[in-house]
Design brief:
By secondary structure, the protein is mainly β. It has one domain (3-668): Beta Barrel (Maltoporin, Chain A), CATH 2.40.170. The protein has a 22-stranded antiparallel barrel. It has a 5-stranded mixed β-sheet with strand order 3-8-9-6-7. Strands 1-2 form a two-stranded antiparallel sheet. A hairpin with a 7-residue loop joins strand 23 and strand 24.
């Protein structure tokens, strides 16, 4: 971004206080976040760009998955190799490449969902109906959360029981033999509450061989007194999906629905358990202890690579935390500290064929991490908050692989990583709805297990002891303001300087994961919403990204798979008889293909897709019905492409869904 653009935006931010009125302080009660500060805090006090997607917004949306919500309400970029909603990859703040999802931390009620291997989280394991709110905190949060919290943190917070027993049933049907059934119930008695849900999701997919199905459910039980609280969350899901593979440009033009891989498929079974205890004392602060356990069983049949594996991943976590929110020498001060202890094991068995008739190799990996952090926010004045945080963390990985026929050891390795981090911020408040902030933070991301260790091949497998963690520095300046009570805006400028970003260099399987040197990621994020009146509501998101190499032969070249522009907008129109019409538009700019580090190949085309939905919502709100049309002009586009011409092959593309229609009904009683 050019320097003059920074100056213009900074000038715009400086005008915010001119529109401030003392009357604003009584407009709305403070919105609360539990993510950005790792404790309950008013959003306008947080030095970050925060988006909260509420239960009401989720209910009104015709989207069926969490990525649907994040794209529409937070303007976040997603991409997919298969059209499979469960494996959609997130890319926040334009990191591109093979592993952008490794730069965004995904939480479920404050517990990590990111997998230790180079795979996206399974977004479908959490039913939309179960979610109370989704919090998106953009920007570096490595001090509070450690690994992966480079571009931001997304916390999915599920429902708890209410005093009144409430049941919900919903059914969605659509083309491609899609049907989604969900049921949930919540309730409470005295100090106990509960919330339970089940779901079934089946579709043949838009492309040939892109079918997937999911069945799962979850349960929360909570006990809550004034000063003591305890809760347990348990969930299970099983997802089966096909992988249709890539197409050439000619195949894409001829028939984007055709498949490239005739037999590739996988199954992902997931179990999550989270138990937490909290003790609140007015004088000595709050103490919380969270115990977590995740289990994943992944069965992958990749016939196109002659690879047939079964992975078991177990993660245990112990997360004690202490919060003290008191005045110090007359100044309000909030201190948060805690320890994050995680232990993950990955066991892989390799077989000769899909029937698992003969086991050929066995892999055993273990990853341990121990981190201590603190964050302090001091009101040096009533309207000025100074923040400072620090984290130190140690991470170790060890593993071995055996070839079973001859009992030959292919590798046996161990490596340790250690990181010290800090951040500092200042926030200026103007009433209850306006803020300006600036923040500097240091960042890191440890390699995925299958970046650090090659274990998905056979004789080419090895332990890369010289692969370093990614690290960086983040600079942010931004603000939020409500103009004229109904016009809400947020804007942030960011600049992230990374060192040792990890990328796969070369052609598979002869390439290698390498630290590619220094890169720069900069941009602007902007949000605007306007509640014009009871009949018209408008919201929009726009992001500008620029990511380039900072050294080496490709200095000044843009990084692959980073669109410079990304935007979306929607308007909700209330019609007679409680019918709501919502047209939407989404634009994604062009980007360089994967592996095109020298920017010599063709680019992935930009695309604009439009959708429209009708929702019927009676005044009692016990019934909701909708019909939704996606990609109404049947735009042919891809969200991912690979530069294969540099190796004498045709470029590869992964087509996204075309025209689609679905309808549904939800009943609560």
């Amino acid at each position: 971004m050019k320097k003059k653009n920074y100056i213009l935006v900074c000038f715009f931010l400086s005008l915010f206080p001119l529109f401030y009125s003392n009357a604003q302080e009584n407009i709305l009660m403070d919105e609360i976040t539990v993510t950005a500060a790792r404790d309950k805090e008013a959003i306008h006090k947080i030095p970050a760009y925060i988006t909260v997607i509420t239960e009401e917004e989720i209910k009104k949306s015709s989207g069926t998955t969490i990525p649907d919500m994040l794209k529409r309400h937070a303007g976040i970029h997603f991409r997919s190799y298969s059209g499979n909603a469960s494996q959609t990859q997130i890319d926040l703040r334009g990191f591109g490449g093979d592993n952008p999802f490794g730069k965004t931390l995904i939480l479920l009620n404050g517990k990590r969902l990111n997998r230790p291997d180079m795979s996206s989280v399974n977004w479908l394991q959490i039913p939309i109906q179960q979610i109370q709110r989704i919090e998106v905190a953009r920007g570096g949060a490595s001090v509070l959360y450690g690994d992966s919290a480079v571009a931001g943190v997304i916390n999915i917070i599920t429902k708890k029981g209410n005093k009144n027993l409430k049941s919900e049933l919903s059914l969605t049907v659509g083309d491609n033999n899609t049907h989604i059934e969900k049921a949930g119930i919540t309730g409470a008695a005295k100090n106990f509450s509960f919330a339970a849900n089940v779901q079934n999701y089946d579709t043949d997919g838009w492309r040939d061989r892109s079918a997937f199905s999911l069945i799962g459910g979850g349960l929360n039980i909570s006990y809550d007194l004034d000063t003591v609280a305890a809760s347990a969350d348990v969930s299970y899901s099983k997802t089966e999906y096909q992988l249709p593979g890539s197409l050439t440009k000619a195949e894409l033009a001829a028939n984007p629905k055709q498949y490239g891989n005739p037999e590739d498929s996988a199954t992902d079974e997931s179990f999550n358990l989270d138990v937490s205890f909290e003790k609140i004392t007015e004088q000595y602060g709050d103490i919380e202890l969270k115990l977590v356990y995740n289990y994943n069983l992944i069965t992958a049949d990749m016939a196109s690579y002659s690879s047939f594996n079964k992975n078991r991943i177990n993660t245990f976590g112990i997360l004690p935390k202490y919060v003290l929110d008191k005045k110090i020498f007359g100044f309000q001060n909030k201190f948060v500290t805690g320890i994050d202890i995680y232990n993950t094991t990955l066991s892989q068995n390799k077989y000769t064929d899909k029937k698992r008739t003969k086991k050929t190799h066995k892999v055993e990996l273990e990853k341990k991490s121990l981190g201590w952090y603190f964050k302090n926010a001091l009101n040096i004045k009533k309207d000025i908050i100074l923040g400072f945080g620090f984290r130190t963390e140690k991470n170790s990985v060890k593993g071995k692989e055996l070839e079973l026929a001859s009992y030959t050891q292919i590798f046996n390795g161990k490596t340790d990583h250690h990181s010290n981090l800090f951040d500092i911020s200042i926030t200026k408040l103007f009433g209850a709805k306006t803020k300006l902030f600036g923040k500097f933070s240091t960042l890191y991301r440890y390699p995925f297990l299958d970046e650090q260790v090659y274990y998905n091949g056979n004789n080419g497998d090895k332990f890369l002891t010289d692969l370093n963690p990614e690290k960086g520095e983040s600079y942010e300046i931004g603000g939020a303001h409500s103009f004229f009570k109904k016009l809400n805006t947020k804007i942030t400028l960011f600049n992230i300087n990374m060192e040792d970003e990890i990328a796969y260099v070369g052609r598979f399987p002869n390439g290698e994961n390498k630290n590619i040197g220094k890169t720069k990621h900069k941009g602007i994020e902007f949000y605007l919403s306007y509640d014009i009146n009871e009949k018209f509501k408008f919201y929009s998101n726009w992001t500008y990204h620029k990511a380039v190499s900072e050294n080496g032969n490709n200095q000044g070249k843009e990084l692959p798979m980073v669109p410079n522009h990304k935007g979306n907008a929607a308007i909700e129109i209330k019609l007679p008889y409680n019918i709501y019409l919502t047209p939407e538009i989404e634009y994604t700019g062009s980007s360089y293909l994967l592996s095109d580090f020298d920017n010599n190949a063709e680019k992935l085309d930009s695309y604009t897709i439009c959708g429209i939905s009708l929702r019927y919502e009676p005044q009692d709100k016990n019934l909701t019905a909708f019909i939704n049309i996606e990609n109404i002009f049947d735009k042919k586009y891809s969200t991912v492409g690979s530069d294969m011409e540099q190796w004498g092959m045709e470029n590869e593309f992964y087509p996204a869904s075309g025209f689609g229609i679905n309808a549904g009904v939800a009943i609560s009683f």
